[in-house]
Structures are given as C-alpha cells and as structure tokens.
Amino acid sequence: MNWLAGGMARTPADTAANFSATAARRTWTATVWLVAFTIVVAVSGYSLSLKVASERQQTEQLARANHALETDLKALDAELRVRMRMPQLQSWNDRVLGLVPISASQYLQSPLRLADYGRAADSAPPLPKAQYAVRDEAPKRAQTPESQPAPRLARADAPPRGAPRAAPPPEAIPAAILARATEEAPADLLQQVRLVLGAPTALAP
Amino acid sequence: MRVAASPDSQVRLPGHRQMALALARHRLAIGILLFATFTLLIGLRLFELSLFDGPVRHRGLATASPRIRADIVDRNGVALASTFEAYALAARPRDIVGNRDELVARLAAILPERDPEQIRAALDHDGPFRYITRRILPEQAEAIRRLGEPGLTLERETERLYPHVGLAAHLIGFTGIDGYGEAGIERAFEERLTDPATRDRPLALSIDVRVQQALESELQAQMDLHEAVGAAGVVLDVKTGEVLGMASLPAYDVNRPGGLTGMPSHMNRATLGVYELGSTFKAFTIAMALESGAVTDLGERFPTTPVAVGRYRITDDHPKNYPLSVPEVLIYSSNVGTARMAERMGREVQESYLRKLGLMDRAPGELLESGRPLYPADNNWGLSAIMTIGFGHGIAVTPLHLASAYATLVGGGVRRPVTFLKVPPGQAPAGERVFSERTAKLVNGMLRLAVLDGTGRQADADGYRIGGKTGTAEKVLTTGRGYDRRHNITTFAGAFPMDDPRYVVIAMVDDPTKGSRMAALVAGPAFQKTVRRIAPVLHVAPDMSLGAEPDLAPFDGLYTPRDPRRDPNAVRHAAMATEVAP
C-alpha cells in the first residue's frame, strides 16, 4: 500500500513488493497453464481411450460373430458331409441310380470319335437315312430326274383350271436328297420330316 | 526433505543451510524426474495397448477341454474327422432343489436318446457328482441351462465327428471319452493332432475316399456273397509308397465304437492280422531264383511230380502232368515247381530276400496296430520250411506286407517305405533296390500271363492290363498243428497297368463258406470290380490294343496261350504268318 500513500517515490521495500507481485502473477499464470494443459491432455486422452475402447468392442463383436458363423458353417458342412457320405452315395446308387463303372469300350481315343460313338462300323452313312423320308414325304415333282425337263410352274396370277390353289411351288431341294431310297424310313424320322416339310400337298401322292 | 524438517534445536551455520537447501532441491528434482519417467512409461504403454494390441484373439474352440484335435482329411481334402463343440451334462444330487420326477421328465424330453432311468439314477446318486451324459449338442445344452436347476452342471468339451461313419474305420481309428486317440491314425498321431502348434492344420492322409469306398464295398459284396468271416484289402501307389485305400471288414461305426478294442470287428486285418497268403508268394520265389542266379534259363523245365519232404507231401492243385517252364510255373501256380526253385536257392538267399522285402519285420506304415510276421525259427528253417515258404506256406504276413512286397516287385525292384500320409508331389522317397530291373520286368510279364492264361483270369478287367497272382491257403487249425482243409484264406495280389505298373491292389477274403472257396473265384472278382471302379478315379485309361501290353516276347514259346486272339505272342505269330502267306 506504500505506492498509494507515497506517490511515485519508490523505496527498496516497494521494489521488493513489486517483484513479489510479479512473481506471484507468474506463478499463478503457470499454474493456470499447467491446469489447462492437464485438462486438455486428460480430456484428449480420455476421449481417445473411449474411441479406442469403442472400436475394440466393435472388433470383438465382429470377431465373436465371425466365430459363431464359422461354427455354424462347420456344422452345416459336417451335416452335408454326413448326408453325402460315401457309403450313403453307394447305397443310393445301388438302390436307385444303378450306375456302373465305365467300360473300356466307352473310352474314346479322341474327342472327334465322339461323333461316331455308338454307331456300328458297317452301318449306312447318315445321308441315305434322310433320303428314306424324302421318298415317302417329298412332293412328286421334286423326284423328277434331272434329265427330264422340269414342268413349268403355274403362275400365281393365272392358275390353270383345276389346279389346286394351295399348291405352293416346291422349294429347292439339295440334289443329295433327290435320289430315291430303297428302304422304308423309321416312323420317328417320318414324323420329323412331316414337321419340317409340312403335310403332304395335293401334288404329293 | 529430511534436512529441511530437522528439529530447530540443531545448530546450523549459514553455509550449512545453503548446502542443505541445494541437496533438497537435487533430491526433489530427481524425484520429479523419476515420477515423470514413470508416468511417461505408463502413458506409452497405455497408448500401445490401446492402439497396437493386435486383433482380438478368437481362434479355435473356446472349450475347457485340452483335447482339441486337428481335423483329419483325405488326400483331396475331404474331411474324415472333425472336432466340434459339445457339452457334458453332470448332476450334483445334493444341490438339486426342484422336483426330481419333473426334472427327469424334462431332461428325458431334451435328451431323447438317453434312458430316463439312467437319468434318474444319476440324479439319485449318493455321491457329490456324476455324469448324466457326454457329448450333447449346444442346442440341448442351452435348453438344459434354461431349466435353471442349480444341481445340473454343463461342462464344455469337444466332440469328434467322423462323417463317413464306418469308412476306413480301422485306418482312421477313434478317440475315447476323454479325447485321447485309441486306435488307428487318431492313436498313432496323437501328438501331431493335439499339439497347439500344429492342430490348426488338418492332417492329410494318403487315402482317397473314392478308392476306399470302392475297395470296401466290393470286398463287402464278395464277403456277403460267400458268407465269409472277414475281408481285407489294400491299394498302394507303387511310385510313392502311399496307401490309397485300406479296408478291414467287418467294420464298425467309429462315431460309436463301443465295446472293447479287442473285439473281432475292431481288429485291423490289413495291418494287424497275419495270414499265410499262399501262392501269392510264388512270384517272390521266382524273382529270388532269377535274381540270385539259381534259375538262369526261363525255358528250364521243372517236373511236377509230387515231392515228399519231412512230414509234408507237396503236390500241385492244378496238375499239368508235364514239366513246366518258369513262366508256366507261375501261370499254372505249381507248388512243386516253386518248391524246387526254393530248394535250389537255399535258406540264406530266401531269408535275405524276405528280409529285404520287409516280410520279416513288423507291418510297414505309421499305425501302431502293426502285426509281426510269423516265420520258422532259426533252428526250424530246414528244407521243408524252405520249400513250403517257396509257395507261401509256413510264413504268415499281413496284407499290407504283401502289398508292399508286390509294390517292390512290380515297381522296378525298388522298395519304398509305405506311408499313410500324403506325399507331396515330387517328394517320393528314392527307396532301396531289392531286385534288378530285368528281374522285375520278367516277373511283371509272368504276372500278366498268369492273368491272361492262368489262374487269375477272373481278375482281368478289359483294357487295364492287370497282372497278378491268386493265393488259396488253408487256415491253420486252432490247435496250431496242421491245416484245416475246410477253411481257406483266398487272396489276389496284383497290379495295373502292367506296361508301367502304378498301383498294387490286394484283395483278401477270409474263410468263404458258401460257393467256391478258391481265390480265383472269390478274391479274383473282387479285385477285378475294384480295379474297374478305381482306375478312372486314378486316371488310368483302359487300352484294348495289344500294343499297350507289357513285353511278353521273352516268354514266347514257353507257354500255351489260352486265347490266341488276346495273347500278344500269338497275335504276333499270326500277323507274321499272314505277311508270309502271299
């Protein structure tokens, strides 16, 4: 209180008091800073810890869920394996499927032989078999030998009298199948040819 | 601090006070430094723990049982044995608080496979603790927990499941109630299966479940057809020594092994049972004679007239009444011919080769159930023993012994160790040479002829170039003296494809009682059907052309072909005759 009573005159005692006040202020400021720093560090550390704990908890939950799924998968896998165990498959085969081991004659030397598989060596080639159906089902005009002149096709705008209107002009037929076969065609092949060429027309026998 | 707090009565000088203050400051600074360091260390450790502690550990089964075991798989990764979580239910009768009748009814509803009387007996037991049942499922355990009965205890443990039930039962084995392996691979690899360092990885066996199934089912069918006592079979890879399939019938359910391990169904006939396997040994005798130089000419003729030696009289089962060449001795399975070859070789040669083939050691492989062969004692290995061993009598070995020896014979004369574990590609052992390649090749040709023209015709499968030898041996009387003519051991030992032998198959049927009792009609068909089923699995394609047959030229003119259209030598002669004719 000396500096209030004694004006501007400074005594050693005043100087000492000022020094003490300054030191006290510094100490107080340092303490404030220290407390603030401690609070900041503590809050930051705590929030970080919370964050990490939360992440760890989620990770643990995931790991637990994974483990449960692994167990379920293993159980399902085991159940499937038990149901499809080899003795069981053998039992099904013996009772239901009746599969037998492949025989030596079923092995082919190359994939190209697959086209010939099942056909006897002395059987007729496939083309004449197709001709069987043509002989029975193809229109008569198509069977005309090439040496004879082909008949003129009727004009659509001026059909000859008595000609059936529904008779379409025969489509071009490959020469290979124009030759008449000498044998009857199988019934299933005849049916297939009917489906492809259509029903017999008025020109057909 | 102690200086600053010292009593006032002590006299101090000004300099002394300064020194005390300095000392106190120093101590204070050191204390603060230590405290800060300690705090820093704790902080760093917390930081490390919170951020860098690695993933959460949830590996394996969280069970209390220490007997967690590795899975067992076949060579293609198909599971043969797995471990699952299970529970054991126990009762502490003194702690039960509810109505016991009601508790028994509830437990019986949850555990329908348990007898209610047994549950009641456990609940009424006088002792402090008693198991009600072991290995119950987690769902059942949860239902029991919800009963809320404090007198019931659920203990976590592991359960071993074998998905294929009885398939390869004797090979895989089983575990006991405490989780220890008690037979087969489970017992032989106890440490490998339970070691924490290795139990995360499955143990891969050499067997293939498809081969195993084919072998077992065909043997079982033949066993049923002939009402036999048992059967055994082995499929062995000649090049690696791996066992691809091993059957012992009758089998049992490894999930519920029950009973005692000494029961007949629990005995591994393929590795533990020793049998006199008869004429299958003739191939060894011929190979020994050729290799040792006792027989140098394949065209040498051996008389087939019966031989009397000691108290035995050796005769042929399929007498030809004329002297037989070396290949004919094997083709027609001449006891007299092989006995005379053995006589010419002598005991030392015979014993040394039997030892080299492993026929005088314990059964090969890792299984602990390995049989020791029976052979004459040193002081009883006289001429009669030499001659009878020559055609497979007087010595008893396991089917696995026979498979290993045949693999040596057909595989170029090199013996490789037999293993039940998968051999990584390219790591097959080099093996030890027993026979020369020439001898092995000659015997391979003769084994093929034995199937084409001899006693093994029933074992032939079109296109697979099978070679092998039948063996019909009479069983030893239970008194141990002499043989019982009414009970046979029928065996077929062979390999395929004989142009480059890769797989050895042994089919043995023990004591067929219905129909034929000859190996050609009992074991032969089982062998043939097995090969037809396993050959596609093992990537062996059939080849019907004569060019695929092994080299049979050395035997040309030394035997009479049964079917000239299938015999390579006869076909070659016919082709030459056709070329010359024009």
What would you note in describing this structure?
The complex is a heterodimer of chains A (205) and B (582). Chain A is mainly alpha-helical and 205 residues long. Among the domains of chain A are: 2-92; 126-140 and 174-200, no CATH class. Chain A is built from five helices and no strands. Chain A has helices at 2-5, 12-83, 86-97, 126-137, 187-197. In chain A, helix 4 packs across helix 5 (187-197). The longest helix of chain A is centred in the N-terminal third of the chain and has 72 residues, at 12-83. Chain A is rod-shaped. Mean pLDDT of chain A is 68; it is low at 1-6, 126-160, 162-182 and 199-205. Chain B is of the alpha+beta class and 582 residues long. Chain B has two domains: 72-93 and 109-204, Penicillin-binding protein 2a (Domain 2) (Alpha-Beta Complex); 212-421 and 429-572, Beta-lactamase (3-Layer(aba) Sandwich), CATH 3.40.710. Chain B is 35% helix and 16% strand. Chain B contains 17 helices and 14 strands. In chain B, strands 1, 2, 3, 4 and 5 form a five-stranded mixed β-sheet that branches. Chain B has a five-stranded antiparallel β-sheet with strand order 7-6-14-13-12, with helices on both faces. A two-stranded antiparallel sheet of chain B has the order 8-9. In chain B, a hairpin with a 6-residue loop joins strand 12 (467-476) and strand 13. The longest helix of chain B is centred in the first third of the chain and has 38 residues, at 14-51. Chain B is elongated. Residues 1-5 and 58-64 of chain B have low confidence and may be disordered. The A-B interface holds A 45, 48-49, 52-53, 56, 59-60, 63-64, 66-67, 71, 74-75, 77-78, 81-82, 85-87, 89-90, 101-105, 107 and B 43, 46, 50-51, 55-56, 58, 62, 78-79, 82, 84-85, 161, 163-167, 209-210, 212-213, 217, 461-464, 529, 532-533, 536, 541-544.
